[in-house]
Amino acid sequence: MKIIRTIIEMQEQMQKLKSNGKSIGYVPTMGFLHEGHISLMKNARPENDVVVLSIFVNPLQFGPTEDLDAYPRDFERDHKIAEDQGVDFIFYPSAEEMYPDSASVKVSVVDRTNVLCGKSRPGHFDGVATVLIKLFNIIQPTRAYFGLKDAQQVAVVDGLIKDFNFPIELIPVETVREEDGLAKSSRNVYLSEDERQQAVELSRSLEMARHAIERGERNPEELVGMMKNHIHENTSGIVDYVEIYSYPELKELETLKGKVIIALAVKFSKARLIDNTIIDLEVK
């Protein structure tokens, strides 16, 4: 496995591989790798000749109240995890390498961002889109792997790839879960013992909605009300949102049709947890 820190060297390596007909699987991360990232690498490895992992804590996607310096970093640990998963290259640039000068062009994501977690993080997805445009041009992947735990990000990336005509196949990867169904997250460690037992009710509420849809329910308000009641009655958490939209467009629906996302965020005493499920009503 090779570690590359400069854009020029990364581009040269990738262009050489592409000219030799090699397929490139790409997993973008901000490091401090966890099981969700490992799942992305596991999916990328058998589907590509070469797997590239990037580790870059992108300052542009941090809001004014979010502490960039406090973001956890452990490159040696990340290096070992990537090596164990058969990664071929780690692209590990500095902020100065990625953003050497003030930008003359700014990227603004105008759709798919004013709902779910995006509505409370203005500008966040502008930063995500900016860095991904740069990384896609540097790495030139055949396929890019993103976790559906952050389904809104996947929706934004889907729009980015289509709008800018990147010759990249987007591969969404299912959320990694604990045995009881709780979505795995680094934030789970901040739950108390009681909260951890309660937290499984988040995924159960999503399953309840899925079963109701299978029985014919198509009213978003009914489904949202049912889920909120379940969470309220079975947890001490405070519901931030339970929302249903078309996917990946993230548009409101009067009645469910096509592909939809049901997403939630719940605040416990020291952790805010998110989860979602995506259902295609046209698939029998």
UniProtKB/TrEMBL annotation:
GO MF annotation list: ATP binding; pantoate-beta-alanine ligase activity
Pathway: Cofactor biosynthesis; (R)-pantothenate biosynthesis; (R)-pantothenate from (R)-pantoate and beta-alanine: step 1/1
Alphabetized UniProt keyword annotations: ATP-binding, Cytoplasm, Ligase, Nucleotide-binding, Pantothenate biosynthesis
Binding site for (R)-pantoate: Q61, Q153
Binding-site residues, ATP: 30-37, 147-150, 176, 184-187
Lineage top rank: taxon: Bacteria
Database matches in InterPro entries: Pantoate_ligase, Pantoate_ligase_C, Rossmann-like_a/b/a_fold
Subcellular location: Cytoplasm
Residue numbers binding beta-alanine: Q61
EC number: 6.3.2.1
One cellular component term from this protein's GO annotations in UniProt: cytosol
Main enzyme class: ligase
Substrates-to-products reaction catalysed: (R)-pantoate + beta-alanine + ATP = (R)-pantothenate + AMP + diphosphate + H(+)
Major localization class: cytoplasm
Active-site residues, Swiss-Prot/TrEMBL: H37
GO biological process terms on file: pantothenate biosynthetic process
Subunit structure: Homodimer.
Family: Belongs to the pantothenate synthetase family.
PANTHER family documented for this protein: CYTIDYLATE KINASE/PANTOATE-BETA-ALANINE LIGASE (PTHR21299), PANTOATE--BETA-ALANINE LIGASE (PTHR21299:SF1)
UniProt miscellaneous comment: The reaction proceeds by a bi uni uni bi ping pong mechanism.
Name of the protein: Pantothenate synthetase
